[in-house]
Amino acid sequence: MATLRILLLLALSLIAAVSAHNITDILLKFPEYSQFNNYLTQTKLNDEINLRETVTVLVLNNTILSQFVANQSLAVIKTALSIHILLDYFDRPKLLVIGGGSTITTTLYQTTGKAAGSTGFVNITDLAGKKVGFGSAATGSKLDALYERSVKQIPYSISVLEISSPIIAPGILNMPPPPPRVNFTSLLETAGCKTFARLISDTGVMRIYETAEARGLTVFAPTDAAFKAPGLPDFRKLTNTEFDSLLLYHAIPVYVPKVSLMAEKYPIRTLASNEINGFYLTVTTKGDSVTLVSGVDNSRVESMVLDSVPVSIFKIDHVLLPAGFFPQSPSPAVVPVPEASPPSPSPPASAPSAHRPIASSPAPVAAKSPIVSPPGSSGFISRFWFWSCSGSG
Ligand SMILES: *[C@@H]1O[C@H](CO)[C@@H](O)[C@H](O)[C@H]1NC(C)=O
Ligand SMILES: *[C@@H]1O[C@H](CO)[C@@H](O)[C@H](O)[C@H]1NC(C)=O
Ligand SMILES: *[C@@H]1O[C@H](CO)[C@@H](O)[C@H](O)[C@H]1NC(C)=O
Ligand SMILES: *[C@@H]1O[C@H](CO)[C@@H](O)[C@H](O)[C@H]1NC(C)=O
Ligand SMILES: *[C@@H]1O[C@H](CO)[C@@H](O)[C@H](O)[C@H]1NC(C)=O
Question: Which domains does the chain have, with CATH numbers?
Answer without folding.
Answer: 21-163 (2.30.180.10), 184-390 (2.30.180.10)
